[in-house]
Design brief:
The protein is an alpha+beta fold and 97 residues long. It is built from 3 helices and 4 strands, in the order βαββαβα. A hairpin with a 2-residue loop joins strand 2 and strand 3.
Length: 97
């Protein structure tokens, strides 16, 4: 007998670090705080290295200056909303210039 597997929603989006100072501690904390609001797992990927978006120190290890391309991946029940929210945070340059 085979069991029916429910598909887990997954969403992927390319995002760019546009703020002048890059991805330093303040923006990383904003990402972490936002990621904690969702049930979905959120991962940031740079050049094949993947980190949990809920882990501040892991995000900082990506070393992302202005102009860095990242891939945001979310898997879970609110994956679409999570990707939209985090993408907007990047688009607003984390409230910086």
């Amino acid at each position: 007998m085979s069991e029916a597997k429910s598909a887990i929603p997954a969403v992927t989006q390319e995002i760019w670090v546009e703020n002048r100072l890059g991805l330093h501690a303040r923006p990383a904390m904003k990402i972490t705080n936002l990621a904690l609001q969702f049930k979905s797992d959120l991962v940031l990927e740079k050049d094949g290295t993947q980190v949990n978006a809920r882990d501040l120190l892991a995000i900082l290890t990506l070393d992302c200056p202005q102009g860095t391309r990242l891939v945001l991946k979310a898997t879970g029940p609110d994956a679409s909303e999570a990707v939209t929210s985090v993408s907007r945070l990047f688009a607003r340059k984390f409230g910086e210039s």
